[in-house]
Write a structure and sequence with these properties.
This protein is an alpha+beta fold. It folds into two domains: 5-42, no CATH class; 53-184, GTP Cyclohydrolase I, domain 2, CATH 3.30.1130. Helix content is 40%, strand content 25%. It has seven helices and seven strands, in the order αααββββαβαβαβα. The strands form two sheets. Strands 5-2-3-6-7 form a five-stranded mixed β-sheet, sandwiched between helices. Helix 1 packs across helix 2. The N and C termini lie far apart (41 Å). 29% of the residues are buried.
Length: 188
């Protein structure tokens, strides 16, 4: 999807007007353009299916019999309820089936799925789904821990609190393999 930057500029200018601000003021005159372009970056994953890119970058997993864990990958996304940032780290482990993915491809997967209005619960689930389907993984576990600006800046205004989510598929959705996967991503 290609964002309509001009439409976004007009919407931001109207938003500023709604709060009694003058977008023609020298301190704000470039704000509508900045915010419109920022939206293009923050929502670059809208309408993008990450599975084909992950499939295309994967290789046959000959010799890859054990789990592959990738820990503490930084991410940021935008809360779909308030359009505020949430950011943290994501860890995952998958048990290869027919294919393995390059680490850069996994980072791209996380960035693509996170670059859309999201809730953290769906974010972890969509990444687990993509790994399972693109790689034919026999088991997938994805964990994310993030601080949400919607909690820190409004309502309770609590800083430093994190939300943890977990998505498991295949063999990692059942014990004892689930316990092994959780240990590999640092969840005890």
């Amino acid at each position: 999807m290609t964002p309509d930057i001009e439409r976004a500029r007009r919407a931001v200018a109207e938003y500023l007007h709604a709060y009694g601000l003058d977008p023609a003021d020298p301190t704000l005159e470039r704000t509508p353009d900045r915010v419109a372009r920022l939206g293009g970056e923050l929502f670059a994953g809208v309408g993008v299916d990450p599975v084909p890119a992950l499939e295309a970058s994967s290789v046959a997993g000959v010799g890859a019999r054990g789990p592959v864990a990738f820990r503490d990958v930084p991410f940021r996304s935008t809360c779909e309820h308030h359009l505020l940032k949430f950011a943290g780290t994501m860890s995952l482990v998958y048990l290869p089936g027919a294919k393995v993915a390059g680490l850069g491809a996994i980072v791209s997967l996380i960035e693509t799925v996170a670059a859309r209005p999201q809730v953290q619960e769906r974010l972890t689930d969509e990444i687990a789904f993509a790994l399972e389907n693109a790689l034919g993984a026999r088991g997938v576990l994805v964990s994310a821990s993030a601080e949400h600006d919607c909690v820190a800046m409004r309502g309770p205004r609590i800083r430093g609190a994190t939300v943890a989510t977990l998505a498991a598929r295949g063999t990692y959705a059942h014990e004892p393999a689930a316990a092994e996967a959780r240990a590999l991503v640092g969840l005890g």
